[in-house]
Write a structure and sequence with these properties.
Elements (H helix, E strand, L loop, with lengths): L2 E2 H7 L3 E3 L5 E2 L1 E2 L9 E4 L16 E5 L9 E4 L2 H12 L15 E2 L4 E2 L4 E2 L4 E2 L4 E2 L4 E2 L4 E2 L4 E2 L4 E2 L4 E2 L4 E2 L4 E2 L4 E4 L4 E4 L2 E4 L5 E4 L4 E2 L4 E3 L5 E4 L4 E2 L4 E2 L4 E2 L4 E2 L4 E2 L4 E2 L4 E2 L4 E2 L4 E2 L4 E2 L4 E2 L8 E3 L4 E2 H12 L1 H24 L1
Parallel strand pairs: 4-5, 5-6, 6-7, 8-11, 9-12, 10-13, 11-14, 12-15, 13-16, 14-17, 15-18, 16-19, 17-20, 18-23, 19-24, 20-25, 23-26, 24-27, 25-28, 26-29, 27-30, 28-31, 29-32, 30-33, 31-34, 32-35, 33-36, 34-37, 36-38
Antiparallel strand pairs: 1-3, 2-7, 21-22, 38-39
């Protein structure tokens, strides 16, 4: 396949600066690209590569005014490039079709049109599964679970009983939804298990990465709101409520009964204590430890997490501790010398 740069610009609603007639044969990253490829530049830190890349054309942001080769200026280079990639390299994934004879299906199931179930998947009694949903091999769907339409569940996912999933949800391999919340009462030195009788509710258009664990509520439900995206290796505890269109990055851990608003970002390895709230559009930077509630539209960092400007000053102070220690030691020595001279007089 090959397309002119002008045709690509039309596809992504972009503006061509340079020769729009050149032919593009492939797509690649800005470092890996070769002649005939189109690449993209979204992060300003890679701006120096605009003079070094071997790509024939570059998709850039609107604020880039020129380059040594033709560019296509767009509002969102990453999104535009994704669209071009889909055009040049359509997905070759072969999803299961139909119900495999080796799948184990329970009683009283309601299966929509076009549902696919792979080999050795288990779907227990009274489940409802919407149109065109795909369940790969080795998955377990517990009783009384409801799954919406056009949902994609990759191999070896476990969805426990009485869970509700929306439509167009994507769940990657190894994830467990609806496992028991971590609840115990310590009596006479022994940890007695507290029954976890709630459920989990996942909204439409949610994507959940590999090896994520989302615990069922003690009572009521654990909630992940519409459009939220969850990276690999995330732990979401019982009775957590996550709003819409939030981003939870890898290895984050959210303790029980925490409320997270809409359009919140939790960066990698963030830890959040239980029973706090994180307001809409807040950003928690990587490895922060949230020990108290975070107001809306606030960026926090560090442990304990604090507004980022304060955290930066604290961190700068910590970095200066060795120099401060030496300065104090030198001052103590000078004071001792002065005191010694005073005593001699």
């Amino acid at each position: 396949m090959q397309k002119s740069l002008k045709d690509i610009a039309k596809l992504i609603d972009g503006e061509v600066i340079g020769d729009g007639g050149i032919l593009i044969k492939g797509v690649a990253g800005i470092r890996e690209a070769s002649e005939g490829d189109i690449t993209f530049l979204a992060n300003p830190r890679y701006l120096p590569l605009i003079d070094k890349t071997r790509a024939s054309a570059i998709i850039t942001a609107k604020d880039v005014t020129g380059a040594p080769k033709p560019i296509v200026r767009v509002n969102n280079p990453s999104l535009a490039f994704a669209k071009v990639v889909s055009t040049f390299s359509p997905s070759h994934t072969m999803h299961p079709k139909g119900i495999d004879q080796r799948a184990a299906l329970g009683k009283n199931l309601t299966l929509g049109k076009g549902v696919a179930v792979g080999p050795y998947a288990v779907i227990e009694d009274n489940c409802v599964i919407g149109d065109n949903t795909i369940i790969y091999c080795g998955c377990f769907i517990g009783r009384d679970t409801t799954i919406g339409s056009d949902t994609l569940i990759y191999p070896n996912v476990t969805i426990r009983e009485c869970v509700k999933l929306g439509s167009r949800v994507i769940i990657h391999s190894g994830t467990v939804i609806g496992s028991d919340g971590f609840g115990y009462a310590t009596i006479n030195g022994l940890h007695q298990k507290i029954p976890q009788v709630g459920t989990v509710e996942i909204g439409d258009d949610v994507e959940i990465g590999a090896n994520v664990t989302i615990d069922r509520a003690r009572f009521d439900k654990t909630i992940v709101g519409r459009g939220t995206k969850i990276d690999n290796l995330v732990q979401i505890a019982h009775n957590v409520a996550i709003g819409e269109n939030s981003i939870i990055v890898a290895q984050a851990g959210i303790s029980g009964s925490t409320t997270i608003g809409n359009n919140v970002t939790l960066a990698g390895q963030v830890g959040v204590v239980g029973h706090v709230s994180i307001g809409d559009e807040a950003v928690v930077m990587a490895q922060a430890g949230v020990s108290k509630s975070v107001p809306p539209k606030t960026m926090v960092w560090g442990y304990p997490a604090k507004p980022v400007e304060i955290a930066k000053r604290v961190n700068a102070g910590v970095q200066n501790l060795p120099r401060l220690y030496r300065s104090v030691a030198e001052l103590k020595q000078k004071i001792a010398e002065l005191e010694s001279k005073l005593k001699e007089k």
